Every structure is written in structure tokens, then in C-alpha cells.
């Protein structure tokens, strides 16, 4: 039996999209899958080191690892009219060089923020600590991500939606690419194709059995939020558009990479379709 580790975040969307495998609803007879849950910036950092065969990543990281990892078409999270939020205390004004807490250097929200606010003084911390850092006055503002966008202290308010930043930078209302999955290029191509197909099936099965899976996650305390919040969150970030990339989502990722290159964060503007696993390989191999 082969053992394959799939690394993902402990956030509700990633848990939901993976656990059809964990619960044995989807599997591969000659492979044992193990999972590890780490915060998104830790996953990004480990991807730079090539630690895991299959890993969740921020789309904002991908151009940095494109030579070692291929992008997967499944288990993706986009914002459409919503996304990370730049928050501050009510009644305060942010100066040009305000101090801000971000969830990690390689996150998509950090990329967009750094383009939009080049003079801000950035502190990186775990996203679960950002709200308290703003409340305590350790920073002037912070960017909330994941479940944090759905509820925060009433003394805080939104300075700016990063969705609006994205739309201004992109020049359109393309979906906002936030998180995806990557697979190590050193794996045999046939195995990589099997893993992508398996993960795609897992996300589809999760969506087809959303109520049952959600109830099981809540009963086992596998998510940090309550039932109503989970329902809302999954429709944001683990919805039917998460099963496989659409042409519109491809266009959005390409725009993100082009923006990053234009502003000096990447060494090239890449087309994401050039960095996907060639699924046609299996058919061609046996034709």
C-alpha cells in the first residue's frame, strides 16, 4: 500500500472538501491517504520547501513554486462579491503608513494588499490572532480571512473590502482567486492524474451529500464554527464552483498572476493552463 499525505488547512472549506476521503466515501484501493491540517501560510511555506506531495496553497504563492508543483483543477476557493476584509476600530482613521496585520506573505490577500497599499507597515501573524491584535492596538488594522469575515467584534468595522481592491486592479468583476491545490511534479504522471481525479470526486461527493457531511463534521467538532455559519461559509468557499475550474476562473487566475508580475512580485506572467496536469495523457498512453 502506498501512503500519500494530503496537506490542507483546518478551515471549514478545506475540511469539507477533503473529508469524503477521510470518511472512506472516496478512495483508491492501493493507497492509504493521510492528512495534515496546517494554517495556510504554513502550507505555503512548506510548499516552497517541497514538503508534501499534495497541498492546499494560496493562488498568490503558485508562480513561486511552478517548477516543482502543478496546479490542480479542483478544491478551489474563489470570492464573488466577497472575500478578505481590511478592518480597523470604529472611529479611527488610517494614516498612509498604517501598521497592518496580514495572514502571511504568500497569501493572495497579502499580494493584493501590498499592491494597493505599498506604504503600509506589515506584520505577519496567524489569521486567528489578527482580530485581537487590532482590538489590543498592536496594529492599526488587519485583514480578516476564512471564517473570520463572517463575524467579528462590534467595535470593529470594514475599512475596505479586498473584493473591491481586486475589481479595481483587475478592471472587472472576475471571481477572486484565493486558494487551490498543488501536486508535486516528481510524482509519476499516471499517479498524479489518479490523485486529481480522486480529489475532484471527493469534492463532488461532498457537495452531493453536503447536509450529511456537514452534520458529521459538526458532531465530531472538526470545524470551528456552528451550523448556521458553516452553511453560509460553505456556500462562499466550498460551493459547486469548487469542484473543477471553469474558463472564467482560469481567466481570473491568469489576471492575478499578470498583476503580480506587473508589480514586481513574480519573475514572469504565466498562464495557469500551462501548469496543469495533462489529463489527456492516460487516453494517449493507451491509444
Please provide a written account of the structure:
This protein has helices at residues 12-22, 40-49, 108-116, 130-135, 162-170, 189-208, 210-219, 227-237, 247-262, 281-285; strands at 2-8, 31-37, 54-58, 69-71, 77-79, 85-89, 99-102, 121-124, 141-144, 156-161, 176-184. It folds into two domains: 2-78 and 177-285, Periplasmic binding protein-like II (D-Maltodextrin-Binding Protein, domain 2, 3-Layer(aba) Sandwich), CATH 3.40.190; 85-170, Periplasmic binding protein-like II (D-Maltodextrin-Binding Protein, domain 2). With 287 residues, the protein is of the alpha/beta class. The protein starts with a strand and ends with a helix. The strands form two sheets. Strands 1, 2, 3, 4, 5 and 11 form a six-stranded mixed sheet that branches. Strands 8-7-9-6-10 form a five-stranded mixed sheet.
